[in-house]
Design a protein that fits this description.
three-stranded mixed β-sheet; four-stranded antiparallel β-sheet; Potassium Channel Kv1.1, Chain A; 3 domains; about 475 residues; Serine Threonine Protein Phosphatase 5, Tetratricopeptide repeat; alpha+beta; about 40% helix; Apoptosis, Tumor Necrosis Factor Receptor Associated Protein 2, Chain A; 19 helices
Amino acid sequence: MAFIFPGGILSQLYLGILFGAFCFQTMTVSGGPNPDSMLESGATVINHSMILVQRLEALLVQGNGSDVTLRVQTLHSDEVKVIAAHALVLSLQSEVFEGLLHSRNSSSLTLREPMDCAAVFDKFIRYLYCGEIAVQLEQAIPLHKLASKYRVTALQTGLSLYMTQHLASDSTNGHVVSWYHYAMQTGDVALRDSCLQFLSWNLSSVFHSGEWGSVSDDLLLSLLQRSDLILQSELELFEALEAWIGQNQPGGLTIENSLRAVRYAMISPQQLFRLQKQSPVLLKYHESVRDLLYMAFQFHSASPLQLAKYFDVNCSLFTPRNYLSAAWGSPWIINNPTRDDRSTSFQTQLGPSGHDASKKVTWNALFSPRWLPVSLRPVYTEHGAIQAARSDNGHPRIIVTPATSSADFAGVSFQKTVIVAARQQGKVVVRHVYNFHQSTEETGDFLAEADLQKRASEYLIDSSLYMHIVVKPIYHSLIKAKK
């Protein structure tokens, strides 16, 4: 497509746009200005790019030299937004605009957009002129839709990153669920997984927010199938599910599938008896889960080793999630975590089975801010001097071990989970989860990316490290179950 450049100041400005685009691309590829590629060695770069951006913004606002009028019509509405624009700028930034402008037969271009996109269209156009944009939570999806539709790749990427980094931000009705559903529609795998992980790690907070009711059937079942959910107890999950069913009134198949995803064996017999008599959902759909309830009562009444002779105890029904209640672990707040080693002790139930309810395991936890592997620890030389290891080689370490051993441990393995909380956008959320399967020597990545020396570290809250240690007893078959 051929462009006719107006004369005078505007012509110079268009040339400035081209030169500015070239400079931006050079800086992006090289990671910064490369004087040797454009200037003589030792030359000084005079950068007035901000002045150019300001003039471009003024050009958009004032409409000087405009050669195309954008008529943005809101779908199912008579509302029309008119924007005086410049074909060269639009074409440089979007190949879709380039094609639309090439095929137009008048000085105006009509664009039909849904209401949410039409409301932010002027903001989107300003980005094409200035290369920057101020985003609010509720604007992220419509702006991403526009960036996708007009193939403005840089803005697409920037908005996906924005959403990933603002999952913890406060909003009136919540936004993570809607972002998850949008990511599913667009195939944005990274955003989808980030949303799903955030919801899984902060599920108790989601239960008490306005967005729990907006969870779709598919998202609900995806969450219920996960073992890494962080919540108070399985009973809390059942009660939240019952509330979701009452609010959304889904089809019978969805209700049955969701009820069958509850791990009833992780609920005490006393609470199960109460649910069978008082839960309207369970009363109505009792036949759909009767076999699971029967298995749960058997699980609580018999020895796990005895049960394992006849049933597969490795299925999800008998696998705990990350429960925060006292029977499963303990919170641990460490003030000034870089100062020295710390230790604590706590008790958990031997296993989730009612048969083991009265059996307790005492655990010792040791936290070291600068643990060193054997190869890097200080050693004595033949002259008695110490070869000191570099202090910056150490990294945080946590070890969780039972205070005693017992014959009751037979047939039980213990998965330790350490949950680290942080404050993001003024809200306390789960920052990271570390899983240690049986052996605490597998903790090499614990806080590997955290700089605890910084008071403003994203892993600290008011200079303190907030953790919660969860011990999950997993039963395993010592002999093959009889069929």
